[in-house]
Specification:
It is built from nine helices and seven strands; from the N terminus they run ααβααβββββαβαααα. It is mainly alpha-helical. The radius of gyration is 21 Å and the shape is elongated.
Length: 248
Amino acid sequence: MAERRMVAKKITESKQITLLKTPWAKLMFTWMIPHADDYGRLHGEPEMIKAKIFPREHKSLQKIKEWRDELEKVGLIKIYTVDNQEYIQLINFSKYQTFKTDRPKKKEYPEIPNGNQRIPNGRPKLSKDKLREVKISKDIGDTKTVAVSKKIDFSKKQEKDYNARDLVAYFGKKFEEVIGWEYHANFGKDGKIMKDLVAHYKPEGVLDLIEEFFDMAKENEWVADKLEIGVFKSMVNKLLIRMKKEKK
């Protein structure tokens, strides 16, 4: 990957750039350019964008995802998926870059495959031949990391009857509400954590702690970047203190 890229001065006159709502989205697009390979491609996952584009900025993954999707909406980038990984194609990248004729272009990221598309909410949709349903394992001891896609009607279930699996699913529900993506759970690890917490605080108490954890995430960007069940467990004492203060 080249250490330098060219940015044309007409970028400030771009109608697509002016359509962007925030300066951060404009900055994201500009800073993506030097990180792209010779074909204008780079990692598209918010976590990777944060690590590469904003390593010293305290911005939540939710905000980064919003800015990224805004870039696609105005036609500056194309987000695509290969092997369940998201990538970005900078539109018209080669139009504004000059390459040495004696050096072949280097491809560091996969190209857009045929049939790859995205659905309106910004989450990836694979072509039919690649699309496969991910289901939760029936075994709470399964160590595979899978998307929490189990749909539970929580309104029909009493809090005292929640088991470890239900609590993992509820955590995933709150995660999806905040981030917009499914939570990928390790049911061996995450299930054990919830089981241990239930033994100490009962299901009703764990549900209260989950709610408090996501409330804290809305106020604290550091927490918003670490919405995982393992982090949730490590913060139980802080959450209990917060809940006690709020009751006073």
